[in-house]
Amino acid sequence: MADFNAISEMLQKGKAQDVKTLCQAALDEGVPAKEVLDKGLLAAMDIVGEKFKNNQVFVPEVLIAARAMNAGLEILKPLLVSEDTDNAGTVVLGTVKGDLHDIGKNLVKIMMEGKGLKVIDLGSDVAPEKYVEAAKENNADIIACSALLTTTMGQMEKVVHALEEAGMRDKVTVMIGGAPVTQNFCDSIKADVYTADAATAAESAKSICA
Amino acid sequence: MTGKERILNVLNKKETDVLPWVPFAGVHAGKLVGFNAEVVYKDADKCFQSLKEVNHLYKPDGQPVMFDLQIEAEVLGCDLLWAEDSPPTVSSHPLSETADIPTKIPTPDEGRLPIELEVMRKMKAEFGETTALYGLLTGPFTLASHLRGTNIFMDMIMDPEYTHKLLDYCADVAIAVAGYILDTGMDVVAVVDPLISQISPDHFAEFMTAPFTRVFDHIRERGAKSSFFVCGNATLNLDPMCRTGCDSVSVDENVNLAEAKKVCDKHDVVLGGNIPLTTVMLFGTQQDNMKCVVDLIDSVETKHNLIIAPGCDMPYDTPIENCIAAEQAVHNTDAVREMVANYESSEIEFTGELPDYASLKKPLIEVFTLDSIACAACTYMLAVAMDAQKEFGDKIEVVEYKYTIPENIARCREMGVKQLPSIYINGELKHSSLIPSQEELYAEIREVL
How close is the nearest chain A Cα to the Cα of B35, in Å? Predict the structure, then answer.
């Protein structure tokens, strides 16, 4: 009987080796990889996200949990058949041009991947056109932009414009976030969704792609 | 009471006449005189010129000299990305791929430290008697993250021993820099560590308590006062922060000031904060800023041990009038509370008549002020207009409208006056917040004579 509770517990503690071992044990028992992924890894990451949102865990705990999740994924990936990996949606993610702050962006990536979304991470200092190109190439549902500086958040509006110019505005949802960003700002630049934290961003993204 | 007395009194747990105010004007200082961020932080004379203007317009009780958390990192080998309208950002982390602990301690002649220290000496000479001067340094955790990159977060769990050593080293750097800062005569050393909000109280206790306590002990031994600046939602870490021996802490709008005050009161630590930077200071109106500051002050139960300040370093483009309004609201809270109430009241209607600007007999100079006695920028704005009155005699007419009088609020609304202080010539906005020189104003008047 696969021990999803143990996987969850070890993942939350960031014990990568234990997560690996437990995932392997579950597979050896004949549990389908997809089930280990959903009931084990992703369910555990959901808990981490919720705790992060509620200030019960912080950046170090999230990063270490993500590392454990990835260790488990390594075991599962070769066994996930193609329909399993038909991801729940694709997100192009990056910190906007002129801004090198990527802690928040990386947390969003972790949380979104924890929801089973495919994330194309463009890194930081990403020009508006690059988001659009990547969205086109990957047939993305969402472009998600992060900014920490009041002086770079203006770049988000340029991303919206670049999408319009490419004629893709109605196909792609623009999500924005970061310390200085607010709902008012989101409305004023005609982006689609603002979320205040990484876990909520992942939840919104998931429901947008549903 | 001078501003300096106010700050030192509050930090010594004594009474003040009004609440102390510390506007965090970093690169924003440059906006007041037309220099961009890079110029302000690379040129001691221009930085000093900018900070002088901050002192004149914003009437700080305490004033930070440079709000740049990249100075130590730059000396220690981090590359910087410069921007015109924000402080530089660290773009490379020399320790990201190595577990070595550096031994190099910055000396006062390296990197931009000479610029910073020079500006501090100039500020001390100019404002040392009247304004409490804050020297800022990079806190050990944020410096460690500059050097190590985001790996530092994983290190805390994967390699605690290494993390301790790196933070110890960063505390050594902080102590050395605190020494240089104090040699210039700064009154308060602010240890600025925005990243503290990103870790748990347990991790704080495990990794931060010791190095931070060491830094604050050193500052105290040197006979100076200290502050612990943090950004983000640091609510849960306020208690351990207060235990590190700092005289004060400063928080941003992610922390509830009233709740934070209760925590700080338990430890008899002074609390500073936390006018919202983006929603209010950058994007809000002058009214929003007055209302916000008054509400903020009213929200806090006990008014001792309290400093009002922006949440963090003000954005470069923060409208100058917003900061002037915030200053007024801190120093003249009751008067401003009344202005806000009058402004919000729908009962006040403009009953008079606006001048017929198109057919005036002589040029009409209208000066709109918050209060030309209490507000420094308003005093200067009115003064230059009165100079013009003397210069041109009865060839022009100069009128002042103070916002303290309800009818004038109605007049401002009627005319669409959005910024105070401002000067209108023949009904047309000519100057707001920034005071024109005599020559500039005289030339504009001559044009319409």
Answer: 16
Q: Model confidence at A88, in pLDDT bands (50, 70, 90)? A: confident
Mean pLDDT, range A56-85, rounded to an integer: 86
Residue partners of B23: CB distance under 8 A and separation at least 6: B54, B58, B60, B63, B309, B310, B314, B323, B326, B327
Q: In this structure, are A27 and A108 located in the same domain?
A: no
B134, containing H or E segment: strand B132-138
Residues of chain B contacting residue A99, judged by C-beta atoms under 8 Å apart: 89
Q: Which candidate from A58, A64, A67 shows the least CB-CB separation from B200?
A: A58
pLDDT at B376: 85
Q: What predicted TM-score, i.e. pTM, was given to this entire model?
A: 0.91
Q: Are B99 and B199 part of one and the same domain?
A: yes
| Same domain for B188 and B64 | yes
How sure is the predictor about B350, in pLDDT bands with cuts at 50, 70 and 90? confident
Other beta carbons within 10 angstroms of residue B68's beta carbon come to 26
A29 by Cβ neighbours in 10 Å (0-12 / 13-18 / 19+) ranks as exposed
Shortest distance, CA B429 to any CA of chain A (angstroms): 27
For residues B254 and B256, give the distance between their C-alpha atoms in angstroms, rounded to a whole number: 7
End-to-end CA distance of chain B: 44
> Could you tell me the residue range of the domain that residue A102 belongs to?
87-209
**CA A64 to CA A58: how far, in whole Å?**
10
| Extended strands (E) in B305-391 | 306-310, 364-369
Lowest mean pLDDT among B147-156, B290-299, B357-366, B368-377: B368-377
> Which phi and psi angles does B362 have, rounded to 5°?
-145, 160
* CATH code of the domain covering residue A18: 1.10.1240.10
CB contact under 8 A, B154 and A184: no
Residue A43, pLDDT above cutoff 80: yes
| DSSP 3-state of A180 | coil
- ipTM comes to 0.86
Strand runs (DSSP E) across chain A, as ranges? Answer: 90-95, 118-121, 142-146, 173-177, 193-194
B contacts of A101 (beta carbons < 8 Å) = 89
CB distance B199–A98 less than 8 Å? no
A59/B199 CB distance under 8 A: yes
Range of the domain at B426: 357-448
